[in-house]
């Protein structure tokens, strides 16, 4: 039944491979279960309520991505979007979290309309191939950077912006050993290599952390917690229908749109998950799932849901079908009751997987026309600005704008579609609104 529904043989994969890939993806994305509540609770929302909403959204929408869109991509509340919700919408503009949830809901409705009428699919088709390759590589660099930051191997430095952490600390030594173990397992193409690497690093952290250093690396915070449904349907739909909140709704729409688009494009380019026309596979269904995730976020009590770039960890493990997303989605649900167990797997254990995914996602960079500077310069800007600005959206915006201006000045108007110009206008509006 699974073979027939997910076309496993056609996609050159097996049930075992897909399940292992789903486990890998979950281990790489499970941090959102506690990180999202930590950010959104600063608005006055209940930590446990946001945690329950996060788990439910991740569960339902990852299952939808797997069963409906049949893509190996996890959907969960987006990082960056939750920060915008907290620090810009609620704290910056002084609106209530109920009103902000209403804005999330309306952004989701706009997404649904764009998806139903296939407008978002046209947007995907408007992205030049050279920028697609660059976006994939840029996301790879971004994921690698996130991995190093999560492990505290790269830290903030007032003199140079970033610098290397204290590699003499126990957690850093364990991280380096874990990175080497995981790299060797991946190089040898061992089945479940990423999972084995994560678990091996966790065991090292548990054992060494207890006998070396002033504080343990892994903390046990119990096992059970009760679900909290206090934020369910707490959104203020009417209150969010104000002219003053249009910039907030637009920002949710624009950021979520291009975060999700870039994830689909980047993962598809890196893993050959494309249709006969060279577009990301089942892109309309995937974007519709993403739209549902945003709408559901407002209803459940969390920031917008979006496709997760960490899904590339499962793809690197061999995941090629929706069974990967279904497996990961199912793994989210128990943590509505057992969220304290997540503290057992530290960031230094999942960081090596994120770093190595960067290698995997750099493959498309070889297809960029580096000798043709009118292609190479916009592609390079898109690629490097994703990690350097810590924003996929910013990398895409400046890649699009530079591509359009350069091509038009050189008279290569056939390489600039009407859809791309409309995207550029939306990008400029987003930049202006962000700095007002």
UniProtKB/TrEMBL annotation:
Transmembrane region(s): 20-39, 45-67, 74-94, 100-119, 131-151, 171-187, 194-212, 232-254, 330-360, 380-404, 416-433
Example GO molecular function: purine nucleobase transmembrane transporter activity
Subcellular location: Cell membrane
One GO term describing the cellular component: plasma membrane
Primary localisation category: membrane
UniProt KW keywords: Cell membrane, Membrane, Transmembrane, Transmembrane helix, Transport
Topology in membrane: Multi-pass membrane protein
InterPro entries: Azg-like, Azg-like_bact_archaea, NCS2
Family: Belongs to the nucleobase:cation symporter-2 (NCS2) (TC 2.A.40) family. Azg-like subfamily.
Name of this chain's protein: NCS2 family permease
Organism: Xanthocytophaga agilis
């Amino acid at each position: 039944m699974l073979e027939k529904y997910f076309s496993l043989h056609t996609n050159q994969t097996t049930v075992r491979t897909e399940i292992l890939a789903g486990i890998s993806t979950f281990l790489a994305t499970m941090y959102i279960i506690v990180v999202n509540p930590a950010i959104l609770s600063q608005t006055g929302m209940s930590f446990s309520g946001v945690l329950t909403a996060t788990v439910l959204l991740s569960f339902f929408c990852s299952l939808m991505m797997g069963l409906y869109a049949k893509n190996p991509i996890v959907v969960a509340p987006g990082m960056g979007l939750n920060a915008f919700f907290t620090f810009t919408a609620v704290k910056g503009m002084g609106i209530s979290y109920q009103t902000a949830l209403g804005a999330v809901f309306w952004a989701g409705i706009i997404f649904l309309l764009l998806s139903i009428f296939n407008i978002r699919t046209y947007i995907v088709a408007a992205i030049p191939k050279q920028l697609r390759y660059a976006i994939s590589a840029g996301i790879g660099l971004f994921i690698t950077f996130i991995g190093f930051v999560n492990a505290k191997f790269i830290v903030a430095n007032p003199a140079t912006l970033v610098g290397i952490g204290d590699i003499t600390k126990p957690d850093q030594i364990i991280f380096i050993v874990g990175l080497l173990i995981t790299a060797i397992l991946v190089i040898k193409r061992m089945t479940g290599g990423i999972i084995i690497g994560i678990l091996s690093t966790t065991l090292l952290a548990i054992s060494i952390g207890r006998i070396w250093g002033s504080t343990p690396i892994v903390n046990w915070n119990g096992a059970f917690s009760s679900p909290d449904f206090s934020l369910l349907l707490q959104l203020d739909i009417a209150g969010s229908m104000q002219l003053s909140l249009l910039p907030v709704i637009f920002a949710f729409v624009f950021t979520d749109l291009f975060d999700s688009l870039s994830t689909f494009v980047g993962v598809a380019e890196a893993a050959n998950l494309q249709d006969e026309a060279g577009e990301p596979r089942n892109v309309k269904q995937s974007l519709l799932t993403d739209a549902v995730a945003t709408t559901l976020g407002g209803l459940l009590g969390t920031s917008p849901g979006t496709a997760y770039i960490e899904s590339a960890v499962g793809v690197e493990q061999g995941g090629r079908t929706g069974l990967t997303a279904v497996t990961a989605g199912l793994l989210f649900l128990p943590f509505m009751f057992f969220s304290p167990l997540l503290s057992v797997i530290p960031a230094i254990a999942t960081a090596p997987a994120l770093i190595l995914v960067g290698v995997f996602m750099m493959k498309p960079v070889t297809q960029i026309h580096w000798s043709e500077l009118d292609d190479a310069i916009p592609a390079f800007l898109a690629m490097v600005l994703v990690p350097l600005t810590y924003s996929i959206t910013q990398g895409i915006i400046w890649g699009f704008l530079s591509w359009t201006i350069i091509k038009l000045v050189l008279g290569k108007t056939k390489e600039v579609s009407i859809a791309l110009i409309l995207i550029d206008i939306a990008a400029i509006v987003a930049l202006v609104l962000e700095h007002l």
